[in-house]
Design a protein that fits this description.
The structure is a single chain. Strands 4-5-7-6 form a four-stranded antiparallel sheet, with helices on both faces. The chain contains twelve helices and eight strands. The chain has one domain. By secondary structure, it is α+β, with helices and mostly antiparallel strands.
């Protein structure tokens, strides 16, 4: 396997201290989200959109939530408005990772951590901007050189290609995850490095015969995110997918190999170390890399002749 050349950036003591404070704020915020969800689905509560909206409007202005929401680029009012709009427009569908209103609220609340880290960056508005970006690593050349330890498949664009894949899925439903594949096989270099690290760790501890880590989604455009919303997916905007720092990892398929809980533990451990934000979205788990994770590892092309 070709070696990966990595640069490690140094951080000043004040910057590291600031990151430690932010990590504490994020951990406290996650605990508050768990408490809020417990209140929403309590045994004596019949949860309606109206009940959820009233509770969120009141609770999200508390300091334990404001410490994160007030640090977002557009401020806490805009964040609360976005979350409540997701509640108002919620419609459960078979495609959506938000199978219930509480799950939709949980996804929307935890996604604010992604925006705390990356919400200041301009999103890729169109598909063409994603494909043309020089800020993203395009994975097909890396896969051809066996530089990726995780698997993915490309989305079929033609009607014939989709029909063939559908037939394969019916004939061999357990061979691969039930996913459309990547429309955009590209991501930020930090995320690609992290995914390779997770894939290697997963391969070392998963039961024998378990396939490699499987990535179902990476970078997306705002254009594509809106398209997914029209199809019934819980595709939030703004999104860290639209700046290239998030991935969705197949989870349900690994149950057949008794490896799903192992993968979950790996991801949650990485989160406890402050490297990622993890959101359980059912079939796939959303993973967003934190700025500076892994000592700011960056994959860079090898110089000629090395």
């Amino acid at each position: 396997m070709t070696e990966w050349q990595v640069k490690i950036s140094t951080r000043s003591a004040p910057a590291a201290a600031g990151e430690a404070r932010q990590d504490a704020d994020v951990a406290t915020y996650r605990d508050a989200v768990s408490g809020l969800l417990a209140e929403l689905v309590g045994p004596s509560r019949y949860l309606t959109v109206e009940n959820a909206e009233r509770l969120l409007s009141r609770r999200l202005r508390e300091s334990v939530f404001a410490v994160v929401l007030s640090a977002l680029p557009q401020g806490p009012d805009a964040a609360i408005s976005r979350i409540i709009n997701e509640v108002r427009s919620f419609q459960p569908t078979e495609r959506s990772s938000a199978a219930s209103l509480p799950r939709m609220i949980r996804i929307a609340l935890l996604a604010q951590i992604d925006l705390l880290w990356w919400g200041h960056l301009p999103e890729y508005q169109t598909d063409a901007q994603v494909f043309a970006s020089t800020q993203l690593l395009h994975l097909e050349p890396l896969r051809e050189e066996n530089m990726l330890l995780f698997r993915y498949r490309l989305q079929k664009e033609s009607l014939f290609g989709r029909a063939v894949r559908s037939a394969e899925r019916r004939a061999m439903p357990e061979r691969n995850p039930n996913t459309a594949g990547l429309r955009f096989p590209c991501a930020r270099s930090e995320l690609v490095v992290l995914l390779n690290q997770i894939a290697q760790e997963f391969a070392e501890v998963a039961p024998p015969g378990t396939p490699p880590l499987w990535v179902t989604s990476l970078a997306r455009s705002v254009q594509h995110q809106r398209h997914l919303r029209t199809l019934g997916y819980a595709a939030l905007l703004p999104s860290s997918h639209c700046v290239g720092y998030s991935a969705d990892l197949e989870m349900t398929w690994f149950r057949r190999f008794n490896a799903d809980q192992i993968l979950q533990a790996i991801l949650l451990h990485r989160q406890s170390l402050g490297e990622v934000n993890v959101i359980d979205e059912g079939q796939a788990w959303h993973v967003c890399v934190r700025p500076g994770a892994g000592h700011a590892l960056r994959l860079v092309p090898e110089p000629a002749g090395v």
